[in-house]
Automatic annotation (TrEMBL):
InterPro entries: SAM-dependent_MTases_sf (IPR029063). Coiled coil: none annotated. Signal peptide: none annotated. This is Trans-aconitate 2-methyltransferase. It comes from Streptomyces aureus. It comes from the Bacteria. CDD domains: AdoMet_MTases.
Length: 275
């Protein structure tokens, strides 16, 4: 897939092109490490929101489809449409009730129907047109349905002591922003953005998995750094030795750092005729 120049993204590339290419060996496993770290939290929230039998669901940027499949297997929903710009991981693990659509959710004509649940996890943060996309996703929620958005939040600040981990994370966010447009700075605004898109009973929560050697989240970050190494080096903030040192640090008992977490925000679309 060739890189398409994009407004406001100096590198002019997009997710799955310069970094996180699905055809690169191990990319499915990287996504699965993230899923292992967060799926239980996501499923607990979706179940608490009442997602269950009878629900038609849309999972946007579904990746390897772990949430899509758990919605069917554990929550017993009626159907899930899993959408991704590359469905190779989804089609490798089909299950009854799981429909797949290979599509770019930023396309102006992306309109696969209306759903009681619309869910997007770790997708919008990579797409600079997030404002327009929240409005577009809002259109896909049926009256009385719920939009659930999860993305990364980094809770470190300029007072957080430097560690090999914090140094790498700073370079990673900066490098991804320059290369593909990833931007997590607006993620804490999700509740207001949902309210602005017409949703009611809006709320949000944050989960931060502990960085323990060998844990799914630690392996996820190590893999993510490996795949974004060129983007990080391009910032001039780190060199190869710093990347290698951070990977070793993450896998050691010396590690004492706060992972980036997952903010999940949700809002309900008013029933038709309701104010
Ligand atoms: C970090 S993965 C998250 C996967 C899954 N939602 C999860 O949380 O496990 C991001 C996914 O979004 C997909 N994606 C990125 N940009 C997209 C776009 N414009 N349209 C559709 N899917 C996109 C990628 O292909 C990838 O599978």
């Amino acid at each position: 897939m060739s890189a398409t120049p994009r407004e406001g993204v100096p590198g002019g590339s997009r997710y799955g092109e310069a970094v996180f290419r699905p055809e690169q060996a191990g990319e499915g496993e990287r996504i699965d490490f993230g899923a292992l770290a967060y799926d239980d939290i996501t499923m607990a929230r979706l179940r608490a929101l009442g997602v269950g039998p009878g629900w038609r669901c849309l999972d946007v940027g579904a990746g390897t489809g772990t949430v899509s499949r758990r919605l069917l297997d554990e929550a017993g929903v009626a159907s899930v449409l899993a959408v991704d710009r590359d469905v190779r991981f989804l089609s490798a693990r089909p299950v009854p009730g799981l429909d797949m659509l290979e599509a770019d959710i930023t396309a102006p004509d992306f309109a696969p129907g209306r759903f009681r649940l619309v869910h997007a996890r770790f997708v919008l943060m990579h797409l600079p047109e997030h404002d327009r996309l929240i409005t577009a996703l809002a259109e896909l929620v049926a009256p009385g349905g719920v939009l659930v958005l999860s993305d990364a939040v980094d809770l470190t600040s300029d007072r957080t002591p430097d560690t090999p981990y914090t140094t790498l994370m700073r370079a990673m966010w900066q490098g991804l922003r320059a290369t593909i447009g990833t931007d997590i700075s607006w993620v804490p605004s999700y509740p207001q953005l949902l309210r602005g898109a017409g949703f009611g009973s809006v709320a949000a929560e944050i989960h931060v998995p502990p960085l323990l050697p060998g844990s799914p989240i630690s392996r996820f970050w190590a893999d993510t750094w490996e795949r974004s190494r060129a983007a990080m080096l391009g910032t001039g903030l780190v060199d190869d030795a710093a990347v290698d040192a951070a990977v070793r640090y993450l896998d050691s008992d010396q590690c004492a750092a706060l992972s980036a977490g997952m903010l999940t925000a949700w809002g309900w679309k008013p029933e038709e005729g309701a104010r």
